[in-house]
């Protein structure tokens, strides 16, 4: 599998999983709220998935010491929180914090794990 294909698989998987989560989290609300939340979250997750890895790698290379462990995950969390907050606010997502909780937890956990892997291979 090429790098482009791998990125497409990750972006598509993120779209389906996190978009599905958002639709589920908003399922108690009338349509089209679950559908809109799912599409917004899916699109954001696909984009963020492609972007965060690069942010983590670049930030990791530019700092040293304890900052290498702290700043990349903090940046990933901050970027994700900002983008998700703005997009779901604009979309009027009814189950706002429930919708954001799982994607934020997963993206931050990914950032922590990936940062530790980078540190071990440095």
TrEMBL record:
Q: Which UniProt keywords apply?
A: Membrane, Transmembrane, Transmembrane helix
- Which sequence ranges are marked TM in the entry? 35-56, 68-90, 96-117
Q: What protein name does the entry list?
A: Uncharacterized protein
Q: What organism, scientifically named, is this protein from? A: Palleronia caenipelagi
- Upper lineage: Bacteria, Pseudomonadati, Pseudomonadota, Alphaproteobacteria, Rhodobacterales
């Amino acid at each position: 599998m090429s790098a482009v294909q791998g990125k497409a698989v990750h972006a598509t998987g993120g779209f389906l999983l996190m978009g599905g989560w958002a639709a589920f989290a908003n399922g108690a609300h009338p349509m089209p709220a679950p559908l809109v939340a799912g599409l917004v979250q899916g699109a954001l997750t696909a984009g963020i998935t492609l972007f965060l890895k690069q942010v983590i790698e670049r930030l990791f290379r530019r700092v040293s010491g304890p900052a290498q462990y702290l700043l990349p995950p903090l940046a990933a969390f901050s970027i994700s929180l900002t983008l998700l907050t703005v997009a779901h606010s604009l979309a009027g997502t009814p189950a706002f914090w429930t919708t954001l909780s799982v994607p934020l937890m997963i993206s931050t956990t990914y950032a922590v794990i990936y940062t530790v892997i980078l540190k071990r291979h440095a």
